[in-house]
Amino acid sequence: MAALPNVRMAFCLAGLLLSAPFAGPARAQAPVPDTTRGDSTRVQWKRVLPPLTVTAGRLPTAPANAPTRITVIDSTALARTGAASVASVLEQRAGLFVRRYGETGLATPALRGSDASQTALLLDGQPITDPQLGHLDLSLLPTVLLRSVSVMHGPASPIHGSDALGGAIHLHALRPRSSLQVRGSVHAGAFGERGGSVLVGGPVTDRTSVLAAADLQTTDGDFPYVDEARFPPETVKRRNADRTQRSAFSTVRSRQGEHRLRLSGWVTHSERGLPPSSSTAPAQERQWDTQLRLWGRDRMPLGDGSLTVRGMTQYTRLRYANPQQGLDQTGRTWIQSLESTLRTPLTDHWTTAVGGTGSLARANHPKLDGRAHQEHLSVFAEGTGTYGRLRLYPALRTDAYWMPESRTRLPVTPRLGLNWQPVAAWPSLRLKAHVARAFRVPTFNDRYWQPGGNPDLRPERSWGGDVSLRLDRPHGHIEVTAFAQRRRDQIVWQPTGNGVWSPRNVDRVRALGLEAAGEWAWTLPAETTLKTGATYTFTDARNRTDPTSSSYNEPLRYVPRTEIKAHSTVSWGPAALTLNARYTGRRYVTSDGRQFLDPYLIAGTRLQLSHPVGGVQTSLSLDIDNVLSTDYESVGGRPMPPRHARIQVTLAP
User: Fold this and answer.
1) Residue 122: what are its φ and ψ, rounded to 5°?
2) How does strand 429-440 pair with strand 412-420?
3) The CA-based dihedral angle spanning residues 592, 594, 595, 597, taken in that order and rounded to the nearest 10 degrees
4) Do 260 and 208 touch, CB atoms closer than 8 A?
5) In the chain, N or C: fewer CB atoms in 10 Å?
6) In 353-511, where does DSSP find H-type helix?
7) pLDDT cut 70: percent of the chain above it
8) pLDDT-based confidence at 55, cuts 50/70/90?
9) Which of 54-64 are b and which e, b meaning 16 or more Cβ less than 10 Å from the residue's Cβ?
10) What angle do CA 24, 58, 211 make, to 5 degrees?
């Protein structure tokens, strides 16, 4: 039996190789479908690979043509927000809720009533969610290393496998250019905030380009807040909320014959204090996070299509220390994955992507059973069919998970989506529809935590769908979406009666909602431009497990019923003024719906001035966050900072 894991891994690798059918000699360049022509009755082909929105699938699909709603935050939007982390960017611009356990604490997404473990997180198409915890801290992902962030709203397991019940967040890392890139910045702000970044890149040869970047962020986090637990309430300073984070990134892109190669590496190390809830005395808890990722991709023409092979290895280390309890524990996880995808046209109307993935994941922690590992293999097929004004997007994926002392799990996840232009005379109006099945495999903590882990847990399952209406005009677009989802076998940790908590497949959840989003841009007199956008999200997610329970048909905890976000940027010559605002509605903190956190409104502003100085483009920006100095908490007992400012200087020769 000891050789069985090796046999399974050999099977995984064989499946990847077989996913790419044998073909004759490669052609000079693989044609790919031009999906930007909605009025054509045939798939048009061209030799330049268009930009991909990979969160919607492995075939080129622009957000307007996709079967479901996609939010894209490009490099310009990243710069306009002034956000230092992915958590802050999504807070400002995406139609989802970010649960923040304090300014320097854990930050996780909640999309369409799902939690962090039910939202897939990917980096250049590779899953990076921690298999032990089931989530990844978004505050540990600096935006300076990214060129864009995109969000697929709705079930995405037929595309990305486990965890994508609510949707998928895709991070697109920086890419080298064929021209010289040099950029450096420093910043300082309130409560001991300071840091800087540097980026250097350019061509090495006529076929190879490189890029390297580094980022440093540190803060004392000692902001004042009102402690309501005291009598009378008193303004005190946040303690043990300091944080220092260092990140480094490098990537190489090269053309070798017909191969298009890219190899990247990213390492982040963070040390921070863990302040307790606002009414508890500090315990001097500390946490150290280390994350190392190496990933690569090779794309080559094959027959009438292209073959892409990509892989990633990820190592994470989390150390937690609590002097009062005498704890100092370190957990480590490893993930290795490999994927092969063949994209090819079948007919004048259909293009397909077929392939397979294989992965190994394991974890080591003093509280985990030594069996904490799993092997995974999947095969998938996706298609895009174009029939005049109608586009079809079918997909089917089968995953196999081998887990020690547990049944092999074989979830099958189909998807069917469409994008239709209902009025021939008005091609800018599109109707989207999307229905899919999704699942989430239990985390290592769910299965192997001691005491209480349950290796017999079933994967969480769901069916979900949405209908959207999108209108594109020369100055912008607007999209309105209605969605519904039903989840079963949701994993919940419950007391067993002997002082031990254990996870069980018990919960059933129903989520309904409405989303609206739009972005617009105008050119005004005096060389002035105005760009504005807004999102509205209404989510009604309720527990439908036990009709006799006090929590039955009550809203889920920490799922805001309403969120509204708006942003505007006015640019005039060298100056740009950006305004951001977001309203977050009531969040329930108990399962019976009796206690909740009050709604809050947060506003921020960013003024940026740019001017060449001695041949160097110099940019000076001033950010003021929480302009209204709102006293608020994203999560109960975790106060957020009042009004504060940050100044940044950026140099780009």
Assistant:
1) -130, 150
2) antiparallel
3) 100
4) no
5) N
6) 444-448
7) 91
8) low
9) bbbbbbbbbbb
10) 95
Tokens of 488: 């079963």
Instruction: State which amino acid sits at residue 130.
Output: D
* Tokens of residue 523, six digits: 């050119």
Residue 26 has pLDDT above 70, yes or no: no
* DSSP label of 138: G
Q: Helix H segments across 121-188?
A: 157-160
> What pTM, to 2 d.p., does this model score?
0.90
* Residue 369 buriedness (CB in 10 A; 0-12 / 13-18 / 19+): middle
Q: What is the pLDDT of residues 476-533, one digit of tens each?
A: 999 999 999 999 999 999 888 788 999 999 889 999 999 999 999 999 998 899 999 9
Rounded to the nearest 5 degrees, what angle is found at the Cα of 253, between the Cα atoms of 248 and 255?
165
For 242-289, how does the pLDDT look when each residue is reduced to its tens digit (9 = 90+)? 999 999 999 999 999 999 999 999 999 999 999 988 767 777 899 999
Domain map of the chain by residue range? 4-20+28-173+331-652
- Joined together, the tokens standing for residue 260 give 């298009």
CB-count burial class (<10 Å; 0-12, 13-18, 19+) for 599? middle
- Is it the case that residue 43 has pLDDT exceeding 70? no
Residue 451, burial from CB neighbour count under 10 angstroms (0-12, 13-18, 19+): exposed
Q: Which helix (H) or strand (E) holds 80?
A: helix 75-81
Provide the 3-class DSSP secondary structure of residue 326. Answer: coil
Question: Using one digit for the tens of pLDDT, what is the confidence trace for 76-124?
Answer: 999 999 999 999 999 999 999 999 999 999 999 999 999 999 999 999 9
Quickly name the fold that domain 4-20+28-173+331-652 has.
Maltoporin; Chain A (2.40.170)
Gap between the Cα atoms of 413 and 538, Å rounded: 27
Residue with tokens 């807070």: 91
Q: What is the DSSP string of 50-79?
A: PP--TTS-SS---TTTSSS-EEEE-HHHHH
Nearest to 396 by CA among 354, 339, 442: 354
Spatial separation of the C-alpha atoms in residues 198 and 186, rounded to whole Å: 9
- Tokens standing for 3? 């050789």
Measured from the Cβ of residue 592, the count of other Cβ atoms closer than 10 Å reads 12
SS3 (DSSP) at 134: coil
> How far apart are the C-alpha atoms of 136 and 62, rounded to whole Å?
27
Asked if 588 contacts 49 with a C-beta cutoff of 8 angstroms, the reply is: no
Check residue 231 and give its pLDDT. 80
Q: Write down the residue that tokens 């021939």 correspond to.
A: 424
Residue in 64, 38, 36, 35 with CA at minimum distance from that of residue 423: 38
Q: Is the peptide bond before 451 cis (omega within 30 degrees of 0)?
A: yes
Residue recorded with tokens 């903590």 = 445
Nearest to 396 by CA among 352, 462, 431: 352
Residue 23 has pLDDT above 90, yes or no: no
pLDDT at 33 over 60: no
For residue 629, the SS3 value is coil
Closest residue by Cα to residue 120 from 56, 51, 52, 50: 56
pLDDT, one tens digit per residue, over 599-652 is: 999 999 999 999 998 889 999 999 999 999 999 999 999 999 999 999 999 999
**Residue 334 near residue 290, CB atoms below 8 Å:** no
CB 146 within 8 A of CB 86: yes
Across the chain, what does the average pLDDT equal?
89
CA atoms within 13 A on the CB side of 453: 21
Residue 575 and residue 569: Cα distance in Å, rounded? 10
